[in-house]
Amino acid sequence: MPDIPLRSFRNKQAGYQPLDVDSPNIKSPSPSNDNNSNFNRNNREPQMNRNVSRVAAAATADRSRSNRTRRPAAKQRYVDDPEEAVGLLDSSREGEEVEEREGGGIDGNGSSMMLPDSSKPSKKLLSTRLKSQKSAKSKGTLHTSRTIPFRPPSSLQHKFPPNIVRNQKYSLITFFPMVLYEQFKFFFNLYFLLVALSQFVPALKIGFIATYIAPLAFVLSITIGKEAYDDYKRNLRDREANGQKYLVVDPPSPQSSTSTSSLPFNTTSQIPTHLSTRAVPSSSLLVGHLVRLQKNDRVPADMVLLWTSDPSGTCFVRTDQLDGETDWKMRISVGETQSLGENGVAALGASHGGSGEAEIYADAPTKDIHTFIGTFTLNRSITTLPDDAETHVIGDDEDEDGTGSATPTQRSPLLSHHPSHNPLTDVPMKRTNRSSIQAGAGGGAIVSPLTAENVLWANTVLASSGTVIGFVVYTGTETRAVMNTSKAGTKVGLLEVEVNGLAKILCTTTFILSVVLVALNGFRGGVFTTHTLVSVLRFLILFSSIIPISLRVNLDLGKSLYSHQIMTDSTIPNTIVRTSTLPEELGRVEYLLSDKTGTLTRNEMEMRKLHMGTMSYGQDSMDEVGRQLALAFALSNTGPGDDHNQHYRGSSVTLTHSNSHSMGGGLHQAGAGGRGRRDMSSRVKDVVQSLALCHNVTPVTNDDGSVTYQASSPDEVAIVSWTQSIGLTLVYRDRTKMVLRAGAFSSSQSQTTSENLLTFDILSLFPFTSESKRMGIIVRDCATGEISFLLKGADVVMARIVQRNDWLEEETGNMAREGLRTLVVAKKKLSATAYAEFEKAYHIASTSTGTGVISRAEAQAKVVEELLERDMELLGLTGVEDRLQDEVRSTLELMRNAGVKVWMLTGDKVETARCIAISTKMVGRGQYIHEVAKVKTSDDMKSHLDFLQNKLDCCLVIDGESLQLCLNLFKNEFIEIATKLSAVVACRCSPTQKADIARLIRAHTGKRVCCIGDGGNDVSMIQAADVGVGIVGKEGRQASLAADFSLTQFSFLSTLLLWHGRLSYRRSATLAQFVIHRGLIISIIQAVFSAIFYFAPIALYQGWLMVGYATVYTMMPVFSLVLDRDVSRETALVYPELYKELVKGRVLGYKSFFEWVMISVYQGAAIMIMSLVLFENEFLHIVSISFTALVLNELIMVALEITTWHTYMIISEVVTLFFYVISIAFLPEYFDLSFVVTVGFAWKVAVIVGISAMPLWIVKVIKSRIAPAASSKLL
């Protein structure tokens, strides 16, 4: 948990004055003190921290005075000053480094300095910032920085967005306009609407109005009802979230405030012990509210953590719905407010009329969940604590009096929660009493920096026991959770887009045909006359069946059937279809974007291997490690000559044959004699103890008394759990101390019941960073006083740090090929002199302002590298397995064989993602992995892209920072190259970046993109995809609820895509073409009839014939095509290449469409012409003759299209024919029953049907022999 120092204050700005050593608020240190305090080993006080506080205090005090002078009204004091916002904190790290290099802030001796003019922002930069601030102000205070006092006035609170969760898409006013717009923005539906409305014009009326209105009304009512129901459910969820009650802490009563306002902070006897709270719904929370949370409470808004019931000032939160990681994250309360206690925090702002007693500055809200820039300012004096309130913090090895006593002292709550060391930003801390952070002798403002570790983001959950109090800084749309959530849009399947395009072609064709027929009639009355216009429109309406409204009905019913089949599939149980309009999209996916944690992996780490050079311990030989460890602690406790020691020597180290294969050549070494056994046990003790100490794990006691381990990295938890299983348990850990318990291991062969508590002081901690790829810790054994530097990290950086060896590279490669995450462990013993030398050098580097060549962070890292990371003893190599979801490897292999390119987008570290890419076989054996990380310049990025352009067979691993640079500078080049690569892994991705990648691939390639994830951080990506799939897992149901399809396992994806997706697309494509053919053929018959009979716009088939043709006579057989399948489920999954063939979109391409148009033209013309030829003497019966031939022709065409017969298909054919025969008797106005029952009618109709259908059957048979379909080859 790194400290982030205050940003350098700029001089000559409004409200800030250059510091003067004669200022009453700052005591100038004497030269002697200045020389001794920084470099004398006997008195190494944290001058930097002290001077930072003094600088901030003086600046804040001056600002407060000037603000009071300029703005008499108390409430106006807190209005954001643009120059103040510019000068207080700079959100850019680069800006901070530039200021430091130009000499701002703190000098090398830790004393305060005035900033030179070069440290001021340029006029151009300042004017730009002021303009942006004014622009933001003109739009309200949304998305601006803010300075919020405790107990702020209501007028200030209501300037910020309300804390309302709103996922509804519509309101009562916008519902119908938006739904109707979504429906009629497609030409397909708009055409039907215009045709239906035309029937209300008498001159254009043809047939029954109901035949045009009813289908459209049916489709719209179904769509509107579904949208209304979905939005109603969203409204219920919003109301539940907004109505959840939270406790807001009110200030104590005026009597209590008055009596306690002048008390010192450490005096609590007269402070009321009962908090004044009130329950407030989440939607009523405002910026500046103090909110009290308990375990398992959802954090309702972004808030600064002020106080926790844990004495250490820490708490844990679950962030799985924000960043997708299931590991608990530690959050640290503000040190000054933690020391006040719960009632003291509640009293802040209640005294002095609430006039500026304390305030919090927060930078403008951003999407970055890993960064927060702010300050906490306390504008009242602090009484020095008693001597017994001293605290022993990081880096303490001597008392203030220089005696060098290492006796642990009582820790003050104020300093014990200060964020732990970061090698890039921290200064080694000393034993310090409360007086060291006073802002001057006379009291004043204390300014503390706030980082992301002091903030609870909205939508996270408080995981640890106890209570916390937070200060709301961002609400509603300004919270990180909302800013990282993209608005859900209405998804439209590609099939509908394609059908919409075909409808435009058919409508154009219809219009041209209508004009041609009117023109052939001679344009009676003129070209541009009402008669001509009416004639063209009547022909358009007559031919409107070319684009039948029943197409939409059939497709929607088909989608519902596909959804039902997916949800009732026993091979993928508990699968839910939440968007029933997209099943066909599952058969068109070409890019699969997957989350890692919880999707590809279970996020369950397990220690699998420990390699020590001469010995290798596998999963089946970990008991031997426990026995060796027990022997080592027994030897260290009893001494070499003790009888107990002899007992352990004689009873332990003999390997059985079952595990000797994993021990390597060390078997003979261990069994060579007592000396060898002792050496091996000592080595095991060193590596296990180092693993038990070198981490950032904290044991947490649950409500039931059980203890769980929490850390930011799950592999650290796995390693510490493993050390526990073999006999070395982490029982306690705080910021300054760690306690281990040895002797808890037991097995069937040996047992030790003695327990030893091993206590270690934490002197320095160097957390893992993506740049360093390692973490280190300096500990001191309280029993022996021995100081050790322990280090673990990636082999690529550790290889040059450890002593020369001949096995590390080979064994690391072996473990990596097994998909294990490797860590190299090393140790170095430090003498008191060596540690003091390091501490001195590190302190100087920490307080340096940096130069133009090297920054402070680089100076600190250089000190660690030169004084500690040299010739370290290599202890061992660990291999941790991140367990994959079931059948992940085979599923990804199927996806690749099906032509689907797989990308992995994760918020995890580069090294972790790389290991998972290897273990899931995303990366082939021996395939080159090109890593792009921490790229900051366009030239470097261009060189990477040039390299990738020439090596498209590699796997790209890129981090979020470099990815953002790519998207900003080389968007088109990057996506063009990346989409050609075999695999892409993007690490440290924010939720917004994941969504941006999905949109970018869609826009650039025009291909279908499927995104799959299981956490709240995946919601934006899922919603941005053409098809979103959510997995119900450990990270909750948020992704599942937001997705189009919900699965319970990643492996179900293969069945969902390769079987259901393929079938759905193929069936719907066939159904759409056949429905178009059904409408086109009757329009061709109408056109031939009109052309023969003087181009008159008179309907051949009217009334119930048209209604029956669109429903009873053809609908059941045509719809039965949705049950057809060309291959079995087993064949589709064994041969994923079939999916690749279908993805090309040829089933509903222009080629197949025009083939169906030609078939319709031929059959329509054949039926009409042959009817006139064969029944020229019975012309009055032309309607019954041609219509009967048409119905029989459609039934035969359905039968020719079926590949695999289904019972429903046979029933539909027979029942439809039966209904048609029966209906003839009830429609005497269209059928002459005496004529229909004659033999002549029957054989002539048979001849017409044979001429229209037989050639197509012959062509189909020949085609199946000459050029069979890929699926038919597998039958």
Write the layout of secondary structure elements.
Blueprint: H1 31-39, H2 47-70, H3 82-88, H4 93-101, H5 123-138, E1 146-149, H6 154-157, H7 175-184, H8 187-198, H9 210-243, E2 245-250, H10 254-260, E3 276-281, E4 290-294, E5 302-308, E6 314-318, H11 320-323, E7 328-332, H12 335-347, E8 358-362, E9 374-378, H13 413-416, E10 446-450, E11 455-456, E12 461-462, E13 467-474, H14 480-483, H15 494-520, H16 530-542, H17 550-567, E14 576-577, E15 589-594, E16 601-611, E17 616-617, H18 622-638, H19 643-651, H20 657-660, H21 666-670, H22 674-693, E18 698-701, E19 707-710, H23 714-725, E20 728-733, E21 737-742, E22 756-766, E23 774-781, E24 787-793, H24 795-798, H25 808-817, E25 821-830, H26 832-847, H27 856-867, E26 873-884, H28 888-897, E27 901-905, H29 910-919, E28 929-932, H30 938-949, E29 955-959, H31 960-969, H32 971-978, E30 983-987, H33 991-1005, E31 1008-1013, H34 1019-1024, E32 1027-1031, H35 1038-1042, E33 1045-1047, H36 1052-1092, H37 1104-1110, H38 1115-1119, H39 1129-1134, H40 1137-1143, H41 1150-1174, H42 1182-1201, H43 1207-1225, H44 1233-1236, H45 1239-1266
N-to-C span: 63 Å
**Total DSSP helices:** 45
Report mean pLDDT, rounded to a whole number: 76
Q: Kindly report the oligomeric state of this protein.
A: single chain
Structural class: alpha+beta
For the report, how would you describe the main beta sheet?
9 strands, mixed
Shape: elongated
Computed Rg: 39 Å
Query: Could you tell me the number of beta strands?
Result: 33
Largest beta sheet: strand ordering = 14-33-32-31-15-27-30-29-28
Unreliable residue stretches: 1-141, 256-272, 382-443, 640-678, 745-754
- Helicity, as a percent range: 40-55%
Strand content: 5-15%
